């Protein structure tokens, strides 16, 4: 892949006056900005405590009644695909969940979208999070092992050429399983894997078409993990350079440094930092509020926290720590930060505009203009 590419992500949360109003606005803005792709998450609810979704903590709560009203991603992508004839953006999940989704169903959904979009689907995939599995009765003791088997199952079904598939697996055994959807012009959707730990990185090397972690790491860590992915690909007899080095990252911007500094004081912004692991906090000279050994967003369960408990967990989180999990600043500052990631190997940046999570609704809405300036300039990196 040559050049630097940019995708935009929407939260796909039910809004007003119709459920897809906010997503339609984001999608058409993405088309107008000429980004390369449009992405949606796979969540049943948000990764921050619902008790803080109040106007006094977040301006967005004035216009969005619930931050937990997530729309189902594959249904939403099919809906968007019908509008994608002109924009012709690639459409992807960031990322779909192998915990509560059977891989045969995921293989079907991604292959269907690939056919409907004439080869423009991307299957972003990961282990999922405890919050979207355990409360709903999905066993959560070995998410990485389950993930490995899920991806291997998807590949086995796609490569079956319509023949019956038999495959032993502790999670997804196949017994005369049939998968007969065709690939689009001989190609299946590329699989982009959200990976951080060593075992997941090896899985990217064996099965992935893209390395697609979140930004809760330092750029140099990304570079080191990309090397591990490429080494695993080489060991598996694959071309290491064929794996797209991608990154998902939130963006906070505004009309001035004062507005940006104020945004970082938001309680919801600080809650995002709880998704980092204890090692990330230790590098900032802090202990993770949820304890030593906390692994980060994968194990976060914030929905039963009362307001005071939530506030106590974020009390010591500094604006600098929040900054280090995102791209933050004026357009020029954000571009400088993005260039650091580029120099550490990133070639495809998928951004989520999260400035609306600050206390001031007015400043959050006004941040749209500098955000789209950033989008235009990122394409030139």
TrEMBL record:
GO molecular function, one term: oxidoreductase activity, acting on paired donors, with incorporation or reduction of molecular oxygen
A Pfam family matched in the record: Bac_luciferase
Keywords from the UniProt entry: Oxidoreductase
Domain Luciferase-like: 36-347
Keyword Plastid: no
InterPro entries membership: F420-G6PD/mer (IPR050564), Luciferase-like_dom (IPR011251), Luciferase-like_sf (IPR036661)
Domain of life of the native organism: Bacteria
Protein's name according to its UniProt entry: Photosystem I reaction center subunit VIII
Organism: Mycolicibacter sinensis (strain JDM601)
């Amino acid at each position: 892949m040559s050049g630097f590419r940019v995708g935009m992500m929407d939260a796909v949360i039910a809004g007003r006056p119709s459920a897809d109003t906010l997503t339609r606005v984001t999608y058409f803005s993405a088309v107008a900005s000429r980004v390369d792709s449009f992405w949606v998450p796979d969540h049943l609810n948000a990764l921050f405590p619902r008790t803080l979704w109040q106007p006094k903590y977040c301006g967005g709560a004035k216009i969005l009644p619930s931050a937990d009203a997530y729309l189902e991603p594959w249904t939403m992508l099919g809906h968007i695909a019908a509008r994608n004839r002109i924009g012709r953006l690639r459409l992807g999940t960031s990322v779909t969940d192998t915990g509560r989704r059977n891989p045969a169903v995921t293989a079907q959904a991604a292959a269907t979208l690939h056919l409907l979009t004439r080869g423009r689907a991307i299957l972003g995939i990961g282990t999922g999070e405890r919050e979207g599995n355990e409360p709903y009765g999905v066993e959560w003791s070995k998410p990485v092992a389950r993930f490995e088997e899920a991806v291997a199952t998807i590949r086995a079904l796609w490569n079956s050429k319509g023949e019956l598939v038999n495959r032993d697996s502790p999670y997804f055994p196949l017994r005369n399983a049939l998968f007969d959807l065709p690939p689009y012009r001989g190609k299946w959707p590329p699989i982009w894997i959200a990976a951080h730990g060593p075992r997941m990185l090896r899985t990217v090397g064996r099965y992935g078409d893209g390395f697609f972690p979140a930004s809760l790491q330092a750029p140099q860590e990304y570079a080191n993990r990309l090397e591990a992915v490429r080494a695993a690909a080489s060991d598996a007899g694959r071309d290491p350079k064929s794996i797209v080095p991608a990154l998902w990252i939130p963006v906070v911007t505004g009309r001035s440094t004062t507005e940006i500094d104020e945004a970082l004081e938001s309680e919801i912004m600080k809650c995002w930092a709880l998704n980092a692991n204890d090692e990330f906090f230790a590098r900032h000279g802090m202990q993770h509020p949820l304890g030593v050994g906390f692994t980060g967003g994968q194990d976060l369960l914030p929905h039963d926290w009362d307001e005071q408990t939530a506030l106590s967990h974020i009390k010591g989180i500094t604006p600098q720590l929040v900054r280090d999990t995102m791209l933050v600043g004026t357009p020029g500052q954000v571009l400088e930060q993005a260039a650091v990631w580029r120099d550490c190997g990133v070639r495809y940046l998928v951004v989520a505009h999260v400035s609306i999570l600050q206390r001031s609704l007015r400043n959050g809405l006004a941040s749209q203009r500098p955000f789209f300036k950033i989008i235009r300039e990122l394409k030139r990196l």
